[in-house]
Amino acid sequence: MTQPGTTAPMSKEMQDCVEACMACHGVCEETMSSCLQKGGEAQMQIMRALIDCSEMTRMCADMMMRRSPLAAEMCAMCAGACDMCAEACMSMPDDSQMMRCADSCRRCAEMCRAMAGATM
Predict the structure, then answer these.
(1) Distance in angstroms (rounded) separating the CA atoms of residues 83 and 90
(2) Which of 9, 104, 102, 111 is nearest to 60 (CA)?
(3) Residue 101 in contact with residue 27, Cβ under 8 Å?
(4) Per-residue model confidence (pLDDT) at position 35
(5) What's the average model confidence in pLDDT over 15-31?
(6) 3-class DSSP state of 35
(7) What is d(CA 60, CA 26) in angstroms, rounded to the nearest whole number?
(8) Which stretches within 7-95 are classed as H helix?
(9) Could you tell me the domains of the chain?
(10) Does the pLDDT at position 119 exceed 90?
């Protein structure tokens, strides 16, 4: 039984989503570093998607962990940012870091969509 003023433990699904968000955030940060080292106009366009995704996944995880009433809406937005980032990364299929990032983004988007439809 939960005491008044305390929060029930996170569901397994929410924990998994937080972990997916944080993993995606980390991979996006690594991929940004890789892009900066390579330079080029194509890399700079991908950077926008990476930055959006990195920030959105971190914020989404934070909101879920603190049980924000806006977490479901943030999960829906996060899924969109992850989808855009995965698509941007897929524009460079010969780059293994980009493919790793796209995979992480797709996994996070899927989990965030499920959380957006769930009652938090």
Answers:
(1) 11
(2) 111
(3) yes
(4) 87
(5) 97
(6) helix
(7) 14
(8) 12-38, 41-65, 71-89
(9) 12-117 (1.20.1270.360)
(10) no
